[in-house]
Amino acid sequence: xxxxxxxxxxxxxxxxxxxxxxxxxxxxxxxxxxxxxxxxxxxxxxxxxxxxxxxxxxxxxxxxxxxxxxxxxxxxxxxxxxxxxxxxxxxxxxxxxxxxxxxxxxxxxxxxxxxxxxxxxxxxxxxxxxxxxxxxxxxxxxxxxxxxxxxxxxxxxxxxxxxxxxxxxxxxxxxxxxxxxxxxxxxxxxxxxxxxxxxxxxxxxxxxxxxxxxxxxxxxxxxxxxxxxxxxxxxxxxxxxxxxxxxxxxxxxxxxxxxxxxxxxxxxxxxxxxxxxxxxxxxxxxxxxxxxxxxxxxxxxxxxxxxxxxxxxxxxxxxxxxxxxxxxxxxxxxxxxxxxxxxxxxxxxxxxxxxxxxxxxxxxxxxxxxxxxxxxxxxxxxxxxxxxxxxxxxxxxxxxxxxxxxxxxxxxxxxxxxxxxxxxxxxxxxxxxxxxxxxxxxxxxxxxxxxxxxxxxxxxxxxxxxxx
Length: 468
What we know:
Layout: H1 9-15, H2 28-39, H3 42-55, H4 59-83, H5 89-97, H6 100-135, H7 156-170, H8 173-198, H9 214-225, H10 245-274, H11 287-294, H12 298-332, H13 351-367, H14 374-398, H15 413-427, H16 431-455, H17 457-467
C-alpha cells in the first residue's frame, strides 16, 4: 500500500513554507510571458515545414487539433495550479490525488520532457545561430557545430547557450523574468512581421487539395507539431514564486496558450498559402524564412532568423526553469537527494541543482543529434497531460469541497477530452519512440525501488510512527 500513499494538500502547502523559501516575484503578466516564452520557438520556426510535408495545407487543422488537446489539458492544469500553489506541477498534483508511485512516474516523465526539450531546442538554436554568423562572415568549424553522428564532434554553440541560461537562472528568478519578458516582446514583433509581410502573397490555390494525405496525414502532423505547444505547463512550476497563485496561475496558463494557438494557426495558413507544401522537402530547417524569400521579402526572412535565435533562447530558459522546479519539489519530498532542494542564501534559487540539470542538458545537446531528442519530448508531455486530467476527475470525486479559486468547466467532459486527444496523438508516434519511452520508465522504476521509496519523507514518517 505504500506505493499509493498520498501527501495531503495541506501538507504540500506547509512544506513549501518551511525553511529557506523561494522568492515571490511573478505576476499574471509575467506568467503569461513565461508561457509564451516557452511556447513560441522551435515549433513555429522549424516544425511548420515538417508538418506541412505530412499534412499539406491541412497543417492548419493539425495545429488546431494539437491546440485543442493542450487547451483541454490547460483547464485541468489551471484548476490544480490554483488549488495547490506549490512547485512541481503535475508531479505535485499527482502526489495529492493518485499517490506516491504515480507521482514518481509522472515526475520522472516530466524530467524527460524538460531535459530533452532544452537539449533539442539548443541544437535547433545552434543551427540558426551558426547560419546567422555565416551571414556576417564568421564560420565555426563543422566539427564544433554538430554532434557525433550528425557530421560533427561537439556542438559548441548548443553547449554554451545552455550554460549562459543556467547561469541566469541560478542567480535569480527576477533577473530571468526580465530577460524573458524582453525577448518575448521581440519575438512577438517578429511573428507579427511574418503575418504582415506574408499575408498579401498568399495564393488560395496552394490550399487545395486541403488534405492531400487524408486525415491520417493531418493526425500525424498534429502529433509532431504538438511540440510547438510545449511550455504552457511550465507556468505551473512557478507556483511558489507567484505573488497571488490562486488568481494569477490560471490566467498565465490559459492566456499564453490562447495567444500562441491563434498565432500558430494564422502563421501556418500564411506559410502553406505562399509556398506549395511539396517545396518544403528541401527547406525543413527554416520553412518560415523560406516562404518569405519566395514571396520576395528577403528583408523579413533575415529578421525571422534573428527572431528564431531569440525565440529559442526563451524556450530553453523556461524549460530549464521548469525542470529545476520539478527536481526541487521531488527532492524536498525525499524522492531525490536532498541537496537538490537546497536554496541559495543570497539568490534564493535551487542553485546547485540548477547547475546540475543545466550541465546535463548542455552535454546532451552537444553530443546527441536533434532527431533522437525531439519525438520523446512529445511522448512525455502527452503522458503528463493524461495523468493530470485523470487527477482532476479523481479529486473532484474524493474531495469535492476543497476551495478551488479556478474550476475546470464541465468535469469530467473536458478532462476526458484531454485524455482522448492526447492518447490519440500518442498513438500517432513511431513504435521506436514508445520503446525509448519504455526504457526511460524502466530506469525510473529502478531508481524508485532502490532509492526513492526508501528515502521518501512519507516513508520516514511512517517508520518513525512504527518506532514510537
